Amino acid sequence: MMSATTSTLDVARIQADFPILARTVNGKRLVYLDSASSAQKPEAVLAAMDRIYRESYANVHRGVYTIAEEATAAFEAARTKVARFIGATDSREIVFTRNATEAINLVAYSWARANLREGDVIVLSHLEHHANVVPWHILRQERGVEIRWIPITADQRLDLDGLDDLLDGAKLLAITAMSNVTGTIVDVAGLAARARAAGAHVLVDGCQAVPQMPVDVHAWDADFVAFSSHKLLGPAGIGALWARAELLEAMPPFMGGGEMIRDVTTEGFLPNDIPWKFEAGTPAIAEAVGMGAAVDYLQAIGMDTVRAHERALTQYALDALADRFGDRLTVYGPAGADDRGGVISFLFDEIHAHDVSQVVDEEGVCVRAGHHCAKPLMRQLGVPATTRASFGVYNDRADADALVEALAKAEAFFAI
Amino acid sequence: MMSATTSTLDVARIQADFPILARTVNGKRLVYLDSASSAQKPEAVLAAMDRIYRESYANVHRGVYTIAEEATAAFEAARTKVARFIGATDSREIVFTRNATEAINLVAYSWARANLREGDVIVLSHLEHHANVVPWHILRQERGVEIRWIPITADQRLDLDGLDDLLDGAKLLAITAMSNVTGTIVDVAGLAARARAAGAHVLVDGCQAVPQMPVDVHAWDADFVAFSSHKLLGPAGIGALWARAELLEAMPPFMGGGEMIRDVTTEGFLPNDIPWKFEAGTPAIAEAVGMGAAVDYLQAIGMDTVRAHERALTQYALDALADRFGDRLTVYGPAGADDRGGVISFLFDEIHAHDVSQVVDEEGVCVRAGHHCAKPLMRQLGVPATTRASFGVYNDRADADALVEALAKAEAFFAI
Amino acid sequence: MSGLQDLYREIILDHYRAPRNRGELPVPPAHLVEGFNPLCGDEVVLYLEVEDGVVTDVKTAGQGCSISQASTSMMSAAVKGKPVDDARALIRAFKALMSIHESKLEGAEETDLSADLEGVRLGDLEALQGVVKFPVRIKCATLAWNVLQQGLDETAAESEA
Amino acid sequence: MSGLQDLYREIILDHYRAPRNRGELPVPPAHLVEGFNPLCGDEVVLYLEVEDGVVTDVKTAGQGCSISQASTSMMSAAVKGKPVDDARALIRAFKALMSIHESKLEGAEETDLSADLEGVRLGDLEALQGVVKFPVRIKCATLAWNVLQQGLDETAAESEA
Ligand SMILES: Cc1ncc(COP(=O)(O)O)c(C=O)c1O
Ligand SMILES: Cc1ncc(COP(=O)(O)O)c(C=O)c1O
Q1: Which of A51, A343, B319, C152 is most enclosed, with most CB atoms within 10 A?
Q2: Quick one: which ligand is closest to B102's CA?
Q3: Contact between chains at A90 and D109 (C-beta distance less than 8 A)
Q4: Do B93 and B220 share a domain, yes or no?
Q5: Can you give the CATH number for the domain in which B62 is found?
Q6: Looking at the domain D2-160, which fold is it?
Q7: Are C36 and B262 within 8 A, CB to CB?
Q8: Which among C59, C49, C82, C76 has a CA at the least distance from the CA of C159?
Q9: B236 with B366, same domain?
């Protein structure tokens, strides 16, 4: 693995760490270009989880016996790793959830229901993933809050012209740091400053940004940041909410059960300290350890290096697609890779995204087709679906080339 | 593995399936007696999860490419296995959750908030785990429902004398099928019949019963059944809510996000079909597959055989404890193993549960000490904590003997 | 690309490129019904005219992949002018054709569906059978039929009311 | 059982078997404060009398394991009759003694706590140091001290009000 100061990635070496990349599909090598949906896992992550099950598995926080202590220590050590990875200085500010979706729902159910009233304003953007839309719709149905939408420009950046009006009187700005459809990188720190000036709290959907670039929650000056392990080279089944300790302290519990209590009687209960107050029931133990191993792996590479790799590969792929298909292929998002992550959505004029994905799969190329859980954005794009290729640390130019070749076959297949 | 018709377990063979049992603690072989808290995992479960990550990992329900189809098929096949394991005939009735705790919270947030009003009555029992208490306390704080408690007898069975009064006007009976502290087996079918006669819905906490005895949700005539994978030889991080399809159909969504929607606009959303309506965001994919492998493993043994094994071993241990310690050791719960699962809580007159657990750990024996997430029951017992030993399919008489010997050392250590 | 040739039979691509019965009908008297595939955002819009137990006219709109749109086109051609009972038999037969695999994917219990196929002539529709090899696409193929079913149910309910 | 001998030093077992300052004080003038260990249900109840910046009297109740109850007993003996400032210094010192390991377990950031230990005589309390080898039990040992801290904070707030 590379040191943090090296700026180019030895991708061949990285690829050797990912067992699944050795497999073939239809006799072709697997070209995995769907990391924005879920990333593959390195051996180090699989081994860390396996080790827990084979050597130190027990429920956490509950037993005084040796393997229970070992499991608890590994679980809590993972929390510290995850906290440090995003620049948090207090690991009590990391609540383990099932995924980013639950993290946002936790804020909607706990913080928002305690703090927002009918008519209060939440500002979202047209770039948002359903995970950062539907919880607020549910809240609106229940509480009558008002949702305002930051519009987007023709190249799918945020259109900030009317932002101050939108933020006027807002209680919450809930915004993605990077679009999972167009790769658009959002200036979170800039937006957060304006939101704060307007008196609003700031929730950041870090699902795409946290795996792809250096993230510092304090530099963002956010209140809440949600992200998932499975996009971060870690296992699915675990994610995290980072939130300022004083907010977590003040928030009412979300789910009730074991672990989140200090005392329970027939008359009521006292909640536990943070972060456990929000972790009801037996958590995903091996998965937390796996998430910790995943951030170790990324940190050893260095997130600056990861970002440089994503940028270079994305630019290469954007150029290759333009060269080969010209106007026949619409590519969404900002023109250059400087302002976008390793995600490229595109559409052939005459071929549906779904069909493209099916045909390129025949070549071993995994790309996603659909609305990418961003139907409001799809409506802005005026299409029901796009095809999307996205890159991880294990992808290289050969993968981008394979995509271009496979797309050319799809174009030929559906040619009239 | 044994066939379903064999009634005694070849435990030595079973033990060989559990890698962690090969480890030692303080130079002693690991005697794991905390399966009621979380069970160890057989090789078959670990291999099933590992295989997904190494061969077919992708996000589910989202891609049309080959490995996404394979992952989706494996994930949904696990749902079918889990459904069949508890006698459900429609796999849409299985909602995957993080754990049993979330399953109960789902019912509290979705069904109960849609159907219960101030003053409506929920009936619980003094045997309940916090997972089946705190969600209702939270609901009471929010909605002003009334909670009534089924009392217990001196040997910690349910005292059903006043049941009809308690059920009078009740909307929900939420009851454990087996106590995780005393092992008490509850006559769920009998209680459900009386609850139905009173017009109440029935939620069963199947956490302890599902891993230990044959369970048929229709024979119980329940409406909701919650259970966790990690007590069932499967991984932590996944559990299930079974509920009647027509109830799930009518219930509002709980968490919002990807997967649980049919359509999303800036104005609102349409929920997806069941069970996905309740599965927001990326699920625990490998864990679902692991849970499926775990029920396969148990079904190959046969749940009648599992129950016979638990009963025989529990009786053996109860007798051994009584023989060795007599009145110096208080053992809670029904006197004979016929009416209890493989869980034994006990207390030395003069030694705190915590200290006992610490000393026996020195002998490699893992038992849990504490309130077992059942503080209302602890208050009934009049103690702050008990020590608890619990048995899995991999335990045998030698383990029960090891427990007795270790307890004798603890008694000697703390002798005045 | 042998698997692909199975999925994308020539007749399917033909219906995709030249969909039958595209357009709208005035509502009312026609009945409007829509469906989405939550996976990919495919959309099927159906205008249904039912009179005296006969599907007198059908028009379709919406957008989506070749499978969903070809299936919509083939469905519209198959039921237009047919008695509602025949249309319902076709729905059952088509779903039976798809269901062996769909039930596996979604974990539904397997029941014997061959009875639903008996005595129903699927004709062109059989070309969609290649879809069962691609489980995720089954929903693309069945979408139009689910929308039709909903439409027939709703018109039946209306005429009763 | 060498690890165990470290944990259960003779002086700890002595405080456990014969706890000092058990009992109650009339509230008010005494201040009542309680704490639980959510892990094991251990309970510490403290009656605290503070006058003119001095902890004039302490009584304890509650139940729990040998570590939590011995720690409660030792704490009560250590602070009774001491100025509040000394009691606070003791709290800091005791937590520093425990914290190297506790911070690892709970993932809190490690800070340099040796300053808190300097110049404070822990005396008997040092016997509890063996607990750090048993991370889960650290909470048993610190419970009484957290309760004391809460009690001192609350009495300070009251006297200001
Ligand atoms: C009876 C009972 N109910 C509920 C639970 C909660 O299970 P989980 O922590 O997996 O949600 C448990 C286990 O701790 C239990 O034994
Ligand atoms: C930007 C963004 N937000 C939220 C999510 C939801 O993540 P998860 O499904 O892990 O909860 C995703 C991924 O699907 C995403 O890309």
Answers
A1: A343
A2: 1
A3: yes
A4: yes
A5: 3.40.640.10
A6: Sufe protein. Chain: A (3.90.1010)
A7: yes
A8: C49
A9: no
B153 and B57 within one domain: yes
* A367 to B65: CB separation less than 8 angstroms, yes or no: yes
Which structure tokens are listed for B381?
């017992």
Q: Are residues A310 and A296 in the same domain?
A: no
* pLDDT tens digits along B272-293: 999 999 999 999 999 999 999 9
Instruction: Look at chain A and report how many structural domains it folds into.
Output: 2
Residues 6 or more apart whose CB falls under 8 angstroms from that of D4 comprise B358, B359, B362, B413
Q: What are phi and psi for residue A392, nearest 5 degrees?
A: -120, 180
What pTM value is reported for the model? Answer: 0.93
Cross-chain residue pair D4–B362, CB shorter than 8 Å: yes
Of the candidates B373, B378, B381, B393, the residue annotated as catalytic is B373
For residue B123, count other CB atoms closer than 10 A to its CB.
25
ipTM here: 0.91
Whether chain C lies against chain D with 3 or more Cβ pairs closer than 8 A is no
Name the burial class of residue D36, with classes exposed (0-12), middle (13-18) and buried (19+) by CB atoms within 10 angstroms of its CB. Answer: buried
Query: What's the pLDDT tens digit per position in B187-241?
Result: 999 999 999 999 999 999 999 999 999 999 999 999 999 999 999 999 999 999 9
The residue contributing the CA closest to ligand 2 atom 14 is A37
The answer to whether residue B366 is catalytic is: no
Sheet holding C54-63, edge to edge: C31-36, C43-51, C54-63
Distance to chain C for B245, nearest Cα, Å: 12
For the segment A166-198, what is each residue's pLDDT rounded down to a tens digit? 999 999 999 999 999 999 999 999 999 999 999
Same domain, B124 and B65: yes
Phi-psi group of A322: left, alpha or beta (phi > 0 → left; psi -120 to 50 → alpha; rest → beta): alpha
CB pair distance less than 8 Å for A83 and D107:
yes
Q: What is the pLDDT of residues D120-141, one digit of tens each?
A: 777 788 888 888 888 888 889 9
Tell whether A98 and A50 lie within a shared domain: yes
Contact status of B189 with chain A (Cβ, < 8 Å): no
Co-location of A405 and A315 in the same domain: yes
Contact list, D1 vs chain B (CB under 8 Å):
359, 362, 413
Which amino acid residue places its CA nearest to atom 12 of ligand 1? B207
For chain A, how big is the Rg over CA atoms in Å?
Answer: 22
Residue at A1 is within a domain = no
* Ligand closest in space to the Cα of B258: 2
D66: chain B residues, CB-CB within 8 Å: 352, 354-355, 414
Closest-lying ligand to the alpha carbon of B229? 1
Alpha-carbon distance of B233 to B82, in angstroms, equals 13
Interface test with C, best of B60, B62, B64, B218 (most C CBs within 10 A): B64
DSSP C91-120: HHHHHHHHHHHHHHHHTPPP---HHHHTT-
* Residues A54, A108 within the same domain: yes
Q: Which of residues 230-249 of B touch D (CB under 8 A)?
A: none
Structural domain for A66, as ranges: 46-300
Of A72, A262, A272, the CB nearest to D136: A72
Ligand 1 pocket, residue B205 CB under 6 Å: yes
Q: What are phi and psi of C58, to 5 degrees?
A: -140, 135
Domain boundaries, chain C: 2-160
